[in-house]
Amino acid sequence: MAEQVRWLDESEQAAWTGYRQMKRLLDARLAGELTADSGLSEPDYDVLSLLNDADAPRWCLKDLGTRLLWSPSRLSHHVARMASRGLVDRLPCETDARGTDVRLTTAGRRAIETAAPGHVDAVRRHVIDQLTATDLADLARITRKITAHLRSLDT
């Protein structure tokens, strides 16, 4: 016998619909401002910021994909486009002859260092400054809770 569907009640539906609308509007606003200010796409920024913040000078493409939650195909194609623009180098993997490593170039480092201040300002204007200290603590608690639940499903 099929399980009974637990439909959302009015308050649950309002919360879910509000979240979805906020996410779409926020993603579009931040992506648009990032591209207008720096010429980088949001995926470019994700890759460059991860490589820039990393302790190691190069990342295995597979590990980078795992960290970004991207499919191998998506990451491979995107990194190839970034390499053609001189933002990253693709190198043979030092530990796996079949693998590929990715390294931030000088141009890539310049691009992320140029883009980051404007992007952080946009995040502050559109998110952080709109919330009280209590709101921020609640948001951090809620995101940790949902993230922990979703990660537990993969173990």
TrEMBL record:
Gene3D superfamilies: Winged helix-like DNA-binding domain superfamily/Winged helix DNA-binding domain. InterPro entries: HTH_MarR-typ, MarR/SlyA-like, WH-like_DNA-bd_sf, WH_DNA-bd_sf. SUPFAM superfamilies: Winged helix' DNA-binding domain (SSF46785). Residues 1-148 form the HTH marR-type domain. PANTHER family: MARR FAMILY REGULATORY PROTEIN, TRANSCRIPTIONAL REGULATOR, MARR FAMILY. This is MarR family transcriptional regulator. It comes from Rugosimonospora acidiphila.
